[in-house]
Amino acid sequence: MRQQKWAELAEVKRELAARDWFMGTSGNLSIKVSDEPLTFLVTASGKDKRKETAEDFLLVGADGQPAEATHLKPSAETLLHVEIYNKTNAGCVLHVHTVDNNIISEWYGDEGEVIFTNQEMIKAFGLWEEDAAFRIPIIPNFAHIPTLAKAFADHVHEDRGAVLIRNHGVTVWGKDAFEAKKFLEACEFLCQYYVKLLLLKR
Ligand SMILES: CSC[C@@H](O)[C@@H](O)C(=O)COP(=O)(O)O
Ligand SMILES: [Zn+2]
Questions:
Q1: Which HAMAP family does the entry link to (predicted)?
Q2: What CATH number is attached to the domain comprising 191?
Q3: I need a surface site. Which of 25, 27, 69, 182 has the fewest CB within 10 A?
Q4: Dist. CA 121 → ligand 1 center (Å)
């Protein structure tokens, strides 16, 4: 199971790396391995996530601490992943920093949310109606991770979702790696589209 989950997460990591979504060691990823007790594989902190090594991930428990002896440190943002796995049935969490998700988070930051409408891509989130709107909450980028995790947790209610952290990045989650990656790509598409549209409208 664990090896299979490792391979799944490694493949997602490879694909996101190919998109150049891990600039400057940013980004963290995780995948659930077991439910009782809760364990998940999470990226080791501070690594260049474009590189593929045998030390890319480590197993952590429900408190975000290593579940077995290791010299590796779990991602600095593991507590956000913990909130998702503890509150939902999500199976995979992806976090990336891109220029476009940062710009959107800053542009709409004071409103606390960005609402995407009239865009085919929102169907990726299961919204099929013509007048549907997809809302992504935007939270402040608290440096104190437990405070950030608490603000983040206020927006974690469903097995799938996305939250923008202002001038930091986006965290998305889904029932499995396929769904989480689909949501992340859709989010990035929408952010890129809105940035270009905002520029053209000026
Ligand atoms: C330049 S990366 C900044 C980090 O603090 C963080 O935001 C991040 O996404 C990566 O941290 P990590 O601890 O490697 O998971
Ligand atoms: Zn980050």
A1: Salvage_MtnB
A2: 3.40.225.10
A3: 69
A4: 28
